[in-house]
Amino acid sequence: MTAHDVVVGVDGTLVAVRALDWAADEAVRRGATLRIVYAAPDADEAAPILASAATRIHERHFGLPTETTAAEGDAVRALARESEHAALTVVGTRGFGGVTGLQFGSVSLRLAARVHGPLVVVRGDHPCDGEVLLGLADDAHADVAAYAFQEAERRGARLRVLHSWTHRHTTPELPSPLPATSPGQRQLAQQDRAEEAVPRFSIAGLRERYPEVEVEPRTVRTSPAHALLEATRDASVVVIGAQRHASWHRPRLGPVTHTLLHRSHCPVVVVPTG
């Protein structure tokens, strides 16, 4: 397996077939090999499921390089291991908070906290032919922004960059006789300008590197999870960075990532940032 492979987890369910089709389309766009993985306690169970998946890909994408792998044991560990040398790892889920044979709550969330590269959770109920949506937190997510630009370029789609924020707390003060002239008001106005400039400054260099990508930066004054969730209604895919917080027993995902993995209206690309 090379770092250009697209890895997809299958389990014989219909939602896994949807993930398989999405991964195959992505492999075609990238000119990559599609690696189909089935993880089960007994590897002998994998043969018919992997054969069926390979036949489907051969019929739909004749000539696409395809490999199959049967892995014994836990699906999360198997897919995390496969992701070490893959360009992209893909899994599926059903509906709003539903589960699949890959047990969405168990596998997808755990995998998002452990995957070594970008992970796609295929969900949503509309065709993937809209814009690419980027949820931008700050300048530290340069790799996440770069991935979103590359995704938009591959798809020939517009990139919408969404930066969400809310006003910081300021100490109450006596009103000023002139508008916006008190120290607190001036500080708040300065913070407003700085926050609204974040998406423009963060993507300036990338706009030069990807001149063919049409970009629409937007700053909204609401919670990141709510703003991104609403924006996924019109997107083909949403790209977010997963700042993974270490705990004593396992990595944890932030609230924005958790919300989108459960409720997004389109596929979610999770790019690890820590």
Structure report:
The chain has 274 residues and is an alpha/beta fold. The chain is 39% helix and 21% strand. It contains eight helices and ten strands. It has helices spanning 14-30, 46-60, 75-83, 104-112, 142-155, 183-209, 224-231, 255-263; strands spanning 6-9, 34-40, 66-72, 88-92, 119-122, 131-135, 159-164, 215-220, 235-242, 268-272. Helix 7 packs parallel to helix 8. It starts with 5 loop residues before the first strand and ends with a strand. Residues 95-105 and 187-198 have low confidence and may be disordered.
Secondary structure elements and pairings:
Layout: E1 6-9, H1 14-30, E2 34-40, H2 46-60, E3 66-72, H3 75-83, E4 88-92, H4 104-112, E5 119-122, E6 131-135, H5 142-155, E7 159-164, H6 183-209, E8 215-220, H7 224-231, E9 235-242, H8 255-263, E10 268-272
Parallel strand pairs: 1-2, 1-4, 2-3, 4-5, 6-7, 6-9, 7-8, 9-10
Antiparallel strand pairs: 5-10
Helix pairs in contact: 3-4, 5-6, 7-8
Report the count of strand segments.
10
Q: Tell me the series of helices and strands, N- to C-terminal.
A: EHEHEHEHEEHEHEHEHE
Q: What gap, in angstroms, lies between the N and C termini?
A: 24 Å
Total of DSSP H or I helical runs spanning 4+ residues:
8
User: For the CA atoms, what is the radius of gyration?
Assistant: 21 Å
How would you write the strand order of the largest sheet?
A: 3-2-1-4-5-10-9-6-7-8
Question: Overall 3D geometry?
Answer: globular
Average pLDDT taken over every residue: 80
- Spans where pLDDT lies below 50 across 5 or more residues: 95-105, 187-198
Q: Strand share of the residues?
A: 15-25%
The biggest sheet amounts to: 10 strands, mixed
Structural class: alpha/beta
Determine the fraction of residues in helical runs and give it as a percent range. 25-40%
